[in-house]
TrEMBL record:
Residues 109-180 form the Chromo domain. Residues 1-20 are annotated as: Disordered. GO terms for biological process: chromatin remodeling. This is Chromo domain-containing protein.
């Protein structure tokens, strides 16, 4: 009986992967699936939420992360990927990622400035996009005008570009505000 169990264990373990060993203080990317929604317009980037720090190793296959309040902090090691700690020389060393503001139970990020706008065709319609500089982030993103809503940065942008628009209200080609 013991010999059969040993053979069965050997055959089963052939297909298993060793669990990755994480240490307290490691930076990891958390892989999200359908049960974890981020509320982004595109689900293509939902697999990568943010960098988290391992705060406790629960057992060989699960770790506790420093997730925001309201999220269960313990995850299986298959859902994690070790974040690179040796960036290329040209990459910025800034790792700061401010948490979103909680407004009426929803996540919101603070807009620092709008740098440019462009119209893109989506299907049969033209959509207005703004290049947005976020507070606390180095990179800018292109956001739909509807996603910005009524913000002070949008009011400043409209006042700033009022003299650079044609009769139809479109901004002159290639107009861009320098980064503040």
């Amino acid at each position: 009986m013991a010999e059969a169990q040993a053979e069965q264990e050997k055959q089963t373990n052939r297909h298993r992967k060793e669990a990755k060993n994480y240490k307290v203080g490691d930076k990891v990317w958390l892989k999200l699936d359908k049960q974890y929604r981020t509320g982004r317009q595109s689900r293509k980037l939902d697999w990568k939420s943010a960098k988290y720090t391992v705060t406790e190793v629960v057992d060989s296959h699960s770790v506790k992360l420093d997730t925001p309040p309201g999220h269960h902090p313990v995850f299986h090691v298959d859902r994690l990927r070790l974040a690179s700690s040796d960036p290329l020389p040209s990459q910025a060393q800034d790792d700061y990622q401010p948490l979103p503001l909680q407004v009426d139970g929803e996540d919101e990020w603070a807009v620092e400035e709008i740098l440019s706008e462009q119209r893109k065709r989506r299907g049969r319609r033209w959509k207005l996009y703004f290049e947005v500089k976020w507070k606390g982030y180095h990179r800018t993103t292109l956001e739909l005008a509807e996603a910005l809503g009524d913000t002070a940065a949008l009011d400043r942008w409209e006042a700033y570009t009022r003299d650079f628009r044609d009769e139809e209200g479109r901004l002159l080609e290639g107009f861009r505000r320098d980064t503040p």
